[in-house]
Amino acid sequence: MARTAAYLSTGLSIALATATPATAKAKRVVCAPTTAFTTDLEYLDGYRVYTGPDGDSAVEPLRIPARIVPLLDTGKKLGVLDLPRGGDRAVQIFIGAADVDLPLHPAPYKEMFVLLGGSLTFKTAKFSAAMKPGSVLLFEDVDARVGHGGRVGPCGYVSLSIKPPQ
What are the residues whose beta carbons fall under 8 Å from the beta carbon of 65, sequence distance 6 or more? Predict the structure, then answer.
Protein backbone atom coordinates (compact mmCIF):
# COMPACT_ATOMS: atom_id res chain seq x y z
CA MET A 1 0.00 0.00 0.00
CA ALA A 2 2.91 2.36 0.66
CA ARG A 3 4.03 2.10 -2.96
CA THR A 4 0.54 2.94 -4.18
CA ALA A 5 0.24 5.85 -1.72
CA ALA A 6 3.59 7.22 -2.91
CA TYR A 7 2.31 7.34 -6.48
CA LEU A 8 -0.90 9.02 -5.37
CA SER A 9 0.97 11.75 -3.54
CA THR A 10 3.75 12.42 -6.04
CA GLY A 11 1.96 12.16 -9.36
CA LEU A 12 3.72 11.51 -12.63
CA SER A 13 6.20 13.90 -14.22
CA ILE A 14 7.33 13.42 -17.77
CA ALA A 15 10.05 15.41 -19.52
CA LEU A 16 9.38 16.05 -23.18
CA ALA A 17 12.14 17.11 -25.54
CA THR A 18 11.45 20.29 -27.47
CA ALA A 19 11.07 20.15 -31.24
CA THR A 20 14.29 22.03 -32.00
CA PRO A 21 17.46 19.96 -31.52
CA ALA A 22 19.54 23.15 -31.11
CA THR A 23 18.16 23.68 -27.62
CA ALA A 24 19.12 21.31 -24.87
CA LYS A 25 16.25 22.45 -22.68
CA ALA A 26 13.19 20.28 -22.20
CA LYS A 27 9.60 21.17 -21.48
CA ARG A 28 8.33 19.59 -18.32
CA VAL A 29 4.78 18.31 -18.20
CA VAL A 30 3.47 17.67 -14.72
CA CYS A 31 0.54 15.30 -14.63
CA ALA A 32 -2.02 15.59 -11.87
CA PRO A 33 -1.47 13.12 -9.01
CA THR A 34 -4.82 11.45 -9.54
CA THR A 35 -3.73 7.88 -10.13
CA ALA A 36 -1.51 5.20 -8.64
CA PHE A 37 -0.91 3.68 -12.06
CA THR A 38 2.36 4.32 -13.89
CA THR A 39 4.23 2.39 -16.58
CA ASP A 40 6.78 1.21 -13.99
CA LEU A 41 4.16 -0.24 -11.63
CA GLU A 42 5.24 -3.71 -10.52
CA TYR A 43 2.08 -4.66 -8.64
CA LEU A 44 -1.14 -3.31 -7.19
CA ASP A 45 -1.80 -3.88 -3.49
CA GLY A 46 -5.25 -4.22 -2.01
CA TYR A 47 -7.47 -6.55 -0.03
CA ARG A 48 -9.74 -9.47 -0.83
CA VAL A 49 -13.01 -9.24 1.11
CA TYR A 50 -14.96 -12.47 1.38
CA THR A 51 -17.41 -14.27 3.62
CA GLY A 52 -15.48 -16.16 6.29
CA PRO A 53 -16.42 -19.49 7.90
CA ASP A 54 -18.27 -17.62 10.68
CA GLY A 55 -20.51 -15.86 8.15
CA ASP A 56 -18.91 -12.46 8.68
CA SER A 57 -16.79 -10.52 6.21
CA ALA A 58 -13.15 -11.52 6.32
CA VAL A 59 -10.17 -9.77 4.74
CA GLU A 60 -6.85 -10.96 3.36
CA PRO A 61 -4.09 -9.10 1.53
CA LEU A 62 -4.28 -9.08 -2.26
CA ARG A 63 -1.35 -8.39 -4.58
CA ILE A 64 -1.98 -8.20 -8.32
CA PRO A 65 1.27 -8.39 -10.29
CA ALA A 66 1.74 -6.20 -13.35
CA ARG A 67 3.26 -7.42 -16.58
CA ILE A 68 4.87 -5.42 -19.35
CA VAL A 69 4.02 -6.20 -22.99
CA PRO A 70 4.76 -4.50 -26.34
CA LEU A 71 2.30 -1.71 -27.24
CA LEU A 72 1.29 -2.76 -30.76
CA ASP A 73 4.13 -1.87 -33.19
CA THR A 74 5.08 1.41 -31.46
CA GLY A 75 8.33 0.32 -29.80
CA LYS A 76 6.80 1.32 -26.43
CA LYS A 77 5.66 -0.87 -23.58
CA LEU A 78 2.23 -1.30 -22.03
CA GLY A 79 1.71 -2.19 -18.37
CA VAL A 80 -1.11 -4.68 -17.81
CA LEU A 81 -2.82 -5.71 -14.57
CA ASP A 82 -5.06 -8.76 -14.98
CA LEU A 83 -7.82 -8.39 -12.38
CA PRO A 84 -9.50 -11.47 -10.92
CA ARG A 85 -11.87 -13.09 -13.42
CA GLY A 86 -15.61 -13.33 -13.04
CA GLY A 87 -17.01 -16.20 -15.10
CA ASP A 88 -16.13 -15.60 -18.77
CA ARG A 89 -15.52 -11.90 -18.12
CA ALA A 90 -11.91 -10.70 -18.17
CA VAL A 91 -11.01 -7.33 -16.68
CA GLN A 92 -7.62 -5.65 -17.14
CA ILE A 93 -6.04 -2.31 -16.34
CA PHE A 94 -3.81 -0.96 -19.11
CA ILE A 95 -1.09 1.63 -18.43
CA GLY A 96 0.11 3.28 -21.65
CA ALA A 97 3.22 5.36 -22.28
CA ALA A 98 2.98 9.06 -23.15
CA ASP A 99 3.10 10.56 -26.64
CA VAL A 100 2.60 7.38 -28.66
CA ASP A 101 0.94 7.09 -32.06
CA LEU A 102 -1.22 3.96 -32.05
CA PRO A 103 -1.57 2.42 -35.53
CA LEU A 104 -5.00 1.57 -36.89
CA HIS A 105 -5.95 -2.00 -35.98
CA PRO A 106 -9.13 -4.05 -35.50
CA ALA A 107 -10.08 -4.99 -31.94
CA PRO A 108 -8.63 -8.39 -30.98
CA TYR A 109 -11.91 -9.10 -29.14
CA LYS A 110 -15.08 -7.24 -28.15
CA GLU A 111 -14.22 -4.93 -25.29
CA MET A 112 -15.45 -1.99 -23.26
CA PHE A 113 -12.60 0.48 -22.73
CA VAL A 114 -12.99 3.06 -19.93
CA LEU A 115 -10.39 5.82 -19.74
CA LEU A 116 -9.51 6.29 -16.05
CA GLY A 117 -6.65 8.78 -16.38
CA GLY A 118 -4.56 10.65 -18.92
CA SER A 119 -5.80 11.40 -22.40
CA LEU A 120 -5.82 10.17 -25.95
CA THR A 121 -7.19 11.09 -29.32
CA PHE A 122 -9.23 8.21 -30.68
CA LYS A 123 -9.25 7.79 -34.47
CA THR A 124 -10.72 5.69 -37.22
CA ALA A 125 -10.34 6.25 -40.95
CA LYS A 126 -13.38 8.60 -40.85
CA PHE A 127 -13.58 9.88 -37.25
CA SER A 128 -11.50 11.50 -34.52
CA ALA A 129 -12.40 12.44 -30.93
CA ALA A 130 -10.53 13.66 -27.85
CA MET A 131 -10.93 11.25 -24.94
CA LYS A 132 -10.60 12.29 -21.29
CA PRO A 133 -11.03 10.40 -18.01
CA GLY A 134 -14.50 8.94 -17.88
CA SER A 135 -14.74 8.44 -21.64
CA VAL A 136 -15.95 5.04 -22.77
CA LEU A 137 -15.31 3.15 -26.02
CA LEU A 138 -17.17 -0.04 -26.85
CA PHE A 139 -14.99 -1.89 -29.35
CA GLU A 140 -16.87 -4.30 -31.60
CA ASP A 141 -14.76 -3.85 -34.76
CA VAL A 142 -13.14 -7.29 -34.57
CA ASP A 143 -13.61 -7.91 -38.30
CA ALA A 144 -12.79 -4.38 -39.53
CA ARG A 145 -10.40 -4.00 -42.47
CA VAL A 146 -8.79 -0.81 -41.12
CA GLY A 147 -9.82 -0.58 -37.47
CA HIS A 148 -9.10 2.12 -34.92
CA GLY A 149 -6.05 3.74 -33.36
CA GLY A 150 -5.06 7.16 -32.10
CA ARG A 151 -2.53 9.28 -30.28
CA VAL A 152 -1.76 9.05 -26.55
CA GLY A 153 -1.43 12.41 -24.76
CA PRO A 154 1.57 13.80 -22.85
CA CYS A 155 0.67 12.08 -19.56
CA GLY A 156 0.05 8.61 -20.99
CA TYR A 157 -3.18 6.85 -20.11
CA VAL A 158 -4.73 4.40 -17.69
CA SER A 159 -7.75 2.42 -18.82
CA LEU A 160 -10.02 -0.32 -17.63
CA SER A 161 -10.70 -3.01 -20.22
CA ILE A 162 -13.73 -5.21 -19.75
CA LYS A 163 -14.13 -8.21 -22.04
CA PRO A 164 -17.76 -9.36 -21.91
CA PRO A 165 -18.67 -13.03 -21.48
CA GLN A 166 -18.57 -14.94 -24.77
Answer: 42, 43, 81
